[in-house]
Amino acid sequence: MADRDVMETVEELGRGIREFARQLAEILNIRLEKVLDALNLARLAEILDIKIDNGEVVGLRIKLPSETRPNVHYYTMVGIYGSKCTCEANTLRKKICKHILAALMLWNIITLFRTGKQLDITKIKWLLDYAESKRSEGSI
Q: Rounded to whole angstroms, how far apart are CA atoms 60 and 72?
């Protein structure tokens, strides 16, 4: 692959990542900076499992270090059918935590690498349902 082709591919991946981050922030009605912070956190993730169905990435499991507690890790799962994290924000308060945001960003990146297209956020029904429920509560 020529250097020019590689640069174009890298630029396309960057555009796909930025667009997904923007969509995620918009759907969840949160600041883009919060999603970008999660993307930064995703760099520390250990990918434990990637679920593939009919050639499509349908979910993944990751392990992330706590940003505030030494030697503490959170286990996070995202997929077509739901999400879960072992952190307090998700376990106790049922929030979409930064670990889930990080896993969603990783899921998109893996999908971009495998297919050349970003993850279709409209297929993640649980995410859309969460956003709608928070909007109706006025607490997102």
A: 20
